[in-house]
Write a structure and sequence with these properties.
Layout: E1 3-7, H1 12-22, E2 25-26, E3 29-33, E4 39-43, E5 51-55, H2 62-78, E6 83-88, H3 107-118, E7 122-126, E8 141-144, H4 147-153, E9 160-164, H5 170-180, E10 184-193, E11 196-203, E12 210-218, H6 222-233, E13 240-247, H7 253-258, E14 262-268, E15 281-284, H8 287-298
Parallel strand pairs: 1-2, 1-5, 5-6, 6-7, 7-8, 9-10, 9-12, 12-13, 13-14, 14-15
Antiparallel strand pairs: 3-4, 10-11
Helix pairs in contact: 1-8, 2-3
The structure holds ribose-5-phosphate (R5P).
């Protein structure tokens, strides 16, 4: 089946890099706004009978990028796409995977329902905030992980300890441990507000060790800031490494990170963070992994070596 890519506006550099990996063509599309701010989407090439992959992380501005993802699906199936996959390297609203208090929506579940209702038959996502989010979808979700690529990009030393900066990151820390064979420590964090967290305790042996903090995302940088300060207070070496899949860098994140003793800071290009990023940020390109995934899906081949549980 002819493989066709469509890029939403959220991360055109990544989409372009994926297209180069695959040697695949883009369907040209118009993404514009009417004067009243409504979205206007139009496909400029025929995609009838094609195996179509829409590449769109739902990063900041989240709602605009979600809407593009949904409208592109509707345009595609009405235009005769034979198979339609949403490639969402970063899934916005994933942190709203449960009700933290009463009378709240489960945002991740709402988004899953919308993606499905828009016409996608399958989703490809990377390092979801919680793997259980897959269960919100009634269409197949292929859950990839960047952990192996990030681990390969690291310079490791034998005095390192992998640190999960909150209880939710323990599984991710164990995944890094399976590649790096280092001990794991866990931080007990509570969230004070959208941009503030408070560290309760450090669980594990970190004294005189060099911490490697692993997290699925850095948003405002509050979690990393609290982790670094807490680890220093617990007696670790002032020699920090931080690894994350989704480098959102929202609001005060960059200034917070610049002020911390972080020697290695490694992220991926799952979202387009723009140019205002810490100077020493090392970016791992996800295009080869995503390209390989798309090629395998197009040929109905197994994804086993690529999936997050592999
Ligand atoms: C929380 O559970 C996530 O895994 C991240 O630790 C958190 O969302 C990062 O946000 P921020 O950088 O604003 O602390």
């Amino acid at each position: 089946m002819t493989l066709t890519l469509i890029a939403g506006s959220a991360n055109v550099p990544l989409a372009t890099s994926i297209a180069q990996e695959l040697g695949a063509k883009f369907c040209k599309r118009t993404l514009a706004r009417f004067p009243d701010s409504e979205l206007h989407v139009e496909l400029e090439d025929s995609i009838r009978g094609d195996d179509v992959y829409v590449i769109q992380p739902t990063s900041l501005p989240v709602d605009e990028h979600v809407m593009e993802l949904l409208f592109l699906a509707d345009a595609c199936w009405r235009a005769g796409a034979a198979r339609l996959t949403a490639v969402v390297p970063y899934l916005g609203y994933a942190r709203q995977d449960r009700r933290a208090s009463g009378r709240e929506p489960v945002g991740a579940s709402v988004i899953a329902g919308l993606i499905e209702a828009a016409g996608y038959a399958r989703v490809v996502a990377i390092d979801l905030h919680a793997p259980e989010i897959e269960g919100f979808f009634r269409i197949p979700l292929e859950h990839l992980s960047a952990a192996r690529l990030l681990a390969e990009a690291l310079r490791t030393t034998s005095d390192m300890v992998i640190v999960a900066p909150d209880l939710g990151a323990v599984k991710l820390a164990e995944r890094y441990q399976s590649f790096l064979h280092l001990p794991v420590a866990v931080l007990h964090k509570t969230r004070v507000s959208g941009s503030e967290v408070s560290l309760q305790s450090v669980i594990g042996d970190v004294r005189d060790r060099s911490p490697l903090i692993v997290d699925d995302m850095i948003s405002t940088g509050a979690t990393i800031e609290a982790a670094v300060k807490g680890l220093l207070a617990a007696g670790c070496k002032p020699n920090m490494s931080v690894v994350t899949t989704h480098a959102l860098f929202v609001g005060p994140a960059v200034s917070r990170l610049r002020a911390l003793p972080i020697q290695q800071l490694i992220g991926t290009n799952s979202v387009d963070a723009g140019s205002d990023v810490p100077a020493h940020l090392q970016v791992v390109n996800l295009a080869p992994m995503i390209g390989d995934t798309i090629a395998r899906l197009n040929r109905d081949q197994s994804l086993e070596p690529l999936l997050s549980h592999a």
